[in-house]
Structure formats: structure tokens, C-alpha cells
Amino acid sequence: MKCLSEQRTIIITGASGSIASGLISRFIELGDKLILIYRVFTEEYNSIKKKYPEQIFGIESDLKNLSEIQNKLDNTIADNKLNPGFLIHTAAMRSIDFSSLADGEPQIWYDVIENNLIITYHILRCSIEILRRNGFGRIVLFGSNVSRIGLGNGSAYSASKAAIANLCRSVACEEAENNILINTISPGPVKIDDSKFNPEYREFRKQYYDDQLKRIPLNRLADVDDIFNLCNFLISKTNTYITGEEIFVTGGAL
Questions:
Q1: Tens digit of pLDDT for each residue in 103-117?
Q2: Which residues lie closer than 8 Å to 92 by C-beta, 6 or more apart?
Q3: CB 159 within 8 A of CB 113
Q4: How far is CA 105 from each of CA 96, 108, 152, 153, 162, rounded to the nearest angstrom?
Q5: Minimal CA–CA distance to 142: which of 253, 222, 219, 199?
Q6: How far, in Å, CA of 88 to CA of 168, rounded?
Q7: Strand, helix or coil at 76?
């Protein structure tokens, strides 16, 4: 565990997600303090909060509500005398189109854009002000390799992830003078437990992953350690120059 002088305080969104859960367990092992943002608190949260009460601070909030998340984040920081310098934003709505753009439901498009792009704007708007006060900040957003290859029957998701990567580039220009570096990790298929997903999505996911695996030179899917190691570097003080980048984690697939 780190000594207290080296202990980081990291804001992590989408904390109940599969990738976020893996990141959380690894950051806990490093001794970091974590402000975890959930849409709805889970049994997993209650368990880790009980086990690591001095490292875990939870916020139950809908990121679509800007004023709500701003107030809850500010109150959590003030009440617990926290000083976050890092944001890892994993919250997202998965692809649920299952049909072409021309044949799909318009409301699905609107929902995916709101739940991916708009909430990214909200958490950045809330967090950057906090990081500016420190004169230091590191931010990691999560995109997807579909931002460069597209996603048949998933155009809303693909478009939202490409927009997040472009938003990252703009914020990198704006916040460089404040020593705030921001990057996007865009993985290809990541090996996770998908048992919680509904059967329709699991089948869609299996077909897509089977097809993508044929294109990966390393002949395997990414795992959470692949994502964590990159993420941990990007938010570290060792990273002093990489900002505005979209980094693809695809095992060599283009």
C-alpha cells in the first residue's frame, strides 16, 4: 500500500460496470482513495465499502442530471475532506440498436447519445473545475475501437464513442495550461463476465467478438489488466506529455 503522501484520490464513473469493477479492485490494492459514482448502489459497492471504509466513497447519481452530480460530488469532497486529482470515466450505454440506421428507432439514437456523449460532458464540466484548483489533473475517458472501424447495426454507439474521442482532443487543448492531461482509451473486445447481460445482447456480443477475434494478430481478447496498466500510466505523474490522444487497445487489429 502507498504511504499517505502518495495516496491518490480518483473519481471513477460507471462503477458497477465490468471494466470499472476490475479497475477498482486494482486501485484499491495500490492504496488509492476512490470516489465511485453509481447510477444505483449495488451489493458489490456495499461489500467493498464495508471492507475498505477509508478508501471508498460512493455517490448514487444519474449523470444525465448536471446539477445533481455537481452537488453530490462537491458535498462528498467537502464532507470527507478529499482532494481528487484524477478522473476515470467509464460510464456508458452499450450498443442496443441491433438494426441499421435507416431501419432503427430514432429514440434509441437519442438515448445512446445522451447516455454516452452528454454524460461525458457533464462529468467533465463538474470535474475540471476541481482539478483546476489543484493546478494538476489527469483524466481518462473510455472510447471504443468502433470509432475508427464503425459498427454495423450500432451506429449510435459508434458515433457517440467517436465524439468522445474528439471531445477529449478539444479539452486537451483547453486545459493544457492548467496541467490537466486527458486521453481516451479505445479498446477492442475485452474479456469480461457477460452473464448479467440479456440473451439478445449476449448473442449480438458473441457474434461480434467471434468475428473480431479473427482480425486480432495477438489472437486473444484484451483483459482488464491490459486496460488497467495503460490507465494507471496515463493518470500517473510519470505521464507529463501525452494528452489529447485516442489510444487503441486492440492486440494489433486495425
A1: 999 999 999 999 999
A2: 14, 17, 115, 116, 142, 160
A3: yes
A4: 10, 6, 15, 11, 21
A5: 222
A6: 13
A7: helix
pTM of the model: 0.94
Cell 467509464 locates to 90
Domains delineated in the chain = 4-248 (3.40.50.720)
How high is the pLDDT of residue 76?
Answer: 98
Q: How far apart are CA 50 and CA 62, in angstroms?
A: 23
Q: Which three cell numbers stand for residue 32?
A: 488509492
For residue 126, the model assigns a pLDDT of 97
Q: Which residues of the chain have pLDDT under 50?
A: 3-5
SS3 percent helix, strand, coil of the chain, rounded to 5, is 50, 15, 35
Per the CB < 8 A criterion, the answer to whether 87 and 127 are in contact is yes
Q: Which residues of 225-248 are buried (b: 16+ CB within 10 A; e: fewer)?
A: ebbbebbbebbeeeeeeebbbbbb
* Residue 200: per-residue pLDDT: 80
Residue type, 221: L
